[in-house]
Amino acid sequence: MVEKKKKKELSGSWIDEILGGKSDPLANVLSESEEEKKPPLPFISESSPLEEILGTSKKEEQKGQKTPTTPSNPLEEILRSSEKPKEESPAPSLSDILGGGKREVKEEKPAKKEAKSGAPTGVDLLGQILSGGTGTAPSKPKAPAKSQPLPLPLPKPKPPLGLQSIIGETKTEELSYAGRAKVLDAYGNVRILRVKGEPVPIYEIRLPKLSKDEENLLKQVRERAITEIQIDPTLIPNYEERRKIFLREVKRMLKEAAPHFSEGRIEVLAELIVQNMLGYGLLDPLVRDDNLEEIMVIGTNKPVYVWHRRFYMCKTNIVFKEERDILNIIERIAREVGRRIDQQNPLLDARLPDGSRVNATIPPISLDGPTITIRKFKKDPLTIIDLIKYGTMNSDVAAFLWLLVDGLGIKPANILVAGGTGSGKTTTLNALAMFIPPSERVISIEDTAELQLPVEHWVRLETRPPNIEGKGEVTMDDLVKNTLRMRPDRIIVGEVRGPEARTMFTAMNTGHNGALYDFSVIQLSDGRFVLIGDLLEELFEKYSDRIETYRDLEYVVLDEKDRFEVVSVGPDLKAGKHTVTRVWRRKVREGEKLIRVRTRTGNEVILTKTHPFFVFSDGDVVRKEAEKLKPGDRVAVMRKPPKPPQRKAVINPEVYAGISDYYLVPNGKGLVKVPNDGIPPEMAQYLLSINSKPVKLVREVNEGLSYAVGVLLGDGYISSDGYYISATFDDESYMKAFTSAISEFLPESEPQVKREPAYTVVTYGSRPFAEFLHRAFGIPKGRKESLDVPDLVLSNDDLLRHFIAGLFDADAYIDENGPAVVLTTRSENLARKVWYALQRLGIISTVSRVKNRGYKEGVIFRVTVRGVEDLIRFHRSIPLRHSRKREKLEELIRKYRSHRGKRTDRVPISPAMLEPLRRRLNLTVSELSKLASSYAREKVSESLIRHVEKGRMKEIRRSALRGIALALQQVASDLGDEETWVQAKRLELIADGDVYWDEVVSVEEVEPEELGIEYLYDLTVEEDHNYVANGILVSNCMGTIHSNSARETIVRLESPPMNVPRIMIPALDIIIMQVRFNSRKKGTVRRITEIAEISGIEGESIQLNKLYKYDPAKDELQPTEVPSRIINELARHTGMSISELEIEREKRKIILEWMMEKGIRSIEDVGHYIKMFYIDEEALLEKIERDSSAQIQEQIRNIS
């Protein structure tokens, strides 16, 4: 202990020894020199200033006198500091010094010189050195040639100075802490003291004390600087560069005005001027201290507090005496950022040029005067290596999170970091974002830019507050929505507080977890129905030179002109139209199996196991992956798509190029032949070929032609050689409608009619017309293996109705036992598109696959319209010409009537949806029945409500549910019960939704090879991120949030102002909880206390799996051994086993531990090695093996 004490005493600085009241070693040395009675050294002469003595004249050199060498140690700066009077005057505020205030200064009489007793100390002698003695003043230097302001009068001779004046600082607080202060750290002009009786350390900054002459000098130079120094920020945008220029010019002015001042003193005074004019006054040294995280001004006559990175909360020796000084700093910041702060707008939130965040308040909302809080922007941010070293997480957890962020290029996780203020959320988010593969496009969105990433393809976005006029605001929500149009691979949202939460969760659905097979029909907003494989292959071919890849995924970013809209559904269950910005495909992976889902109404879709569906569950809408569906689940199916635009079906003129030998064009006297060398002339009326009759040139499709096309696709054909068209009829009315339509286009052609006992065959011979039908409507020549609904007939509803009429006249029958209308076809494509077409007209149908009982093997598809309501709508909308079918349909409608409404006008219901809400509002069944009947405008009986509450009813009419929902909302609103109102509103959305809840009847695995499936496809849809495929609604970022637990995070997300629909929350994979707390042993620490994953929704609650939990006793995050859903999903997506994924995790852990071992921690170096891992994993591991400890080498051998 004695040795340690001696060592500590020897290690202290001589300044500390003097301040601590110990002997002055410098005084002892100087006194010994005096005793030797040597002549005084030249630089103690009172006849010349210190600068002249240190720069010895040539005359002295000639005499051979030794010139004292210039000291090159810290003492030199102390010796160069300015003279100060022994007497002390009240310290003026900085604004007074630099011309900010009108303070009266009383004249003070010079202090009388006291005779010294005893030998002079080192302090006294140093004082004499710096004061220049009491002799004559030095001669003035020669004036420069150019005109310059006259220098100030030289200061009066000053009495000897004490050590406090030598150092050039105010009387430090440590002088009053005698015997109580311990120096914890010292750097620059800062000392951190631990003082007995003080709850927090003292952050002591040495503030210069100014003489009266120096105060006047600063005022004059400041005024001159304002006039003469003009720096255009647009030419020199870098703040540090502007500061250097300003500092250089101010120093020049000071030297001109006071050439007798030392270089050190000029430096101090110049810094003061620059701090006040460009910086932040008294706060400027704090702002420039990289060891500080936050600076807190809490009012006048109170110390400024800081948060130190090592010593945490500290009290400084800086005190603002005047409120005006604080307001000046606030106003300067406001001007810099183009904001206004006054009594009408008493809050300021801004970012300083160095990236630091500033929050300021002024009265009346801050009761003790203006306040400023500055959160410093760390130039050297903490990396994942720092977080491991500091204990925020261990290397095992860091490797696990790396694996999730990477997702092995297949399924990166959506991660939310949650925690209280100051818990380190942004630091953790920044550290995790470094794991993003370098090939990806990253877009970050922040209120105030804090993230620092070593990522090349990084777009940084920042919100903007409204200007002085209250305009021009750009919110977090605006930026998140805009980001979705910027083709992001990763979206990082700095902090989630409000409506942007819903948008962020929408963005999370941009992940390509699932895909559809190429025979899936998707519904476009213009009314067309297309096979996803055909559409996307066409786009991939067009963009063949711009296909981008990531692992086994291929994707194309569509140009604006090629983007298209699909029908989708929003969280309010209303249909809408949204734009597809990217298209994706990948080959079926080896050994991968797909899932086929069939519903009660015959809808069928084949997709990957992880593709999400929207499922109705006890009054809520949840997402379920395909492989988790089971029979009985109710999935969302489009009931009422948005009405597409009604447009004319204009024929593309290029269809006619080369289709005939000539065009017939009127010339005023008749028709003349014009060779068909391309598109038809504007006035052309007919097509003509050698040995054929004229064919009317069709500019626009009419209802008759649309009907004829339906007939030909149903029970007709074009000959394989393309010379004629033929159709078979079993009804005269139907045949007459067809021939009437065709004769309009073949005015001089007579059909060949062949009558048989049971049917009649009608044939038209015209090669140009047959070729026209083939080109314009896609009717195949020869056998009709693949049929389609032509795009032209989808141009408007009238054409569509007549097309369906022709198709059903030709190939449908009336099922009297159904009752139903049934269309049969061997083409699955045609069947599914007819289902869409009927749905567009408001007619609900089903599609079923049945074995062909005819002479040919295989399957046929049936499109069935059943239920009286839909049959009535079919009869009214579809103008059947087949007399017998029309009569049978009318007879069915007369015979049957609806008892319970059609299936799609009913929604699932359960007791949990109704009874708890009614009881919470203290309503009787009778009261609810009366109120609901009033709102529904129909009888909602008491027995209906009781049946629902007893579980005797599984479905309810939409109108009845809507009436009940509106009644509950009104009562809840009157009682101020917000929670019940929200749940009742959810019932209203379900009742009014544009989807119906189709029952799943089968879920089965299928082999892609057996179905001939090679590629799987997906779309990136803006906004709602879902689309309709085969009639079924299917679905297609990191951020931080304030919260205290994973469960609370979910509650906050669902509650105002975020209002994230519960259906969206499972899109989030991982919640990381982080806290800041005080440890008895380690002081204030930041720790990840919980890592949880969202496993799904059961009933009314989100299900969480806790994967890691913090153990305070061990100060470590411990695994819970709960099987991880996301790891299992990653295994399925990648085709890797769990043990293989563990090896991937171990590789990342080795890299992290190697960087810790080698002391690699900077953002550039850590980012470099993470990038190396993605570029050449093997090369990096080989390098680590050669250059690491035996332990890490053993780990590498184990994974090899």
From TrEMBL:
Under Gene Ontology molecular function, one entry of this record is: endonuclease activity
Kindly indicate whether the keyword Nuclease belongs to this entry.
yes
Q: Which InterPro entries match?
A: AAA+_ATPase, Hint_dom_C, Hint_dom_N, Hint_dom_sf, Homing_endonucl, INTEIN, Intein_C, Intein_endonuc_central
* Ranges of Low complexity composition bias in the record: 137-149
This protein's record includes keyword Transmembrane helix? no
GO annotation, biological process:
intein-mediated protein splicing; intron homing
Report biased composition (Basic and acidic residues) as residue ranges: 77-89, 101-116
Boundaries of each DOD-type homing endonuclease domain copy?
708-843
Query: Highest taxon of the source?
Result: Archaea
State the residue spans of region: Disordered: 1-156
**Which keywords appear in this protein's UniProt record, sorted alphabetically?**
Autocatalytic cleavage, Endonuclease, Hydrolase, Intron homing, Nuclease, Protein splicing
State which residue ranges cross the membrane.
none
NCBIfam families (UniProt xref)? intein_Cterm (TIGR01443), intein_Nterm (TIGR01445)
What the record says about family reads: Belongs to the GSP E family.
Instruction: Give the protein's recorded name.
Output: AAA family ATPase, type II secretion system protein, containing DOD-type homing endonuclease
Q: Which organism is it from?
A: Thermococcus gammatolerans (strain DSM 15229 / JCM 11827 / EJ3)
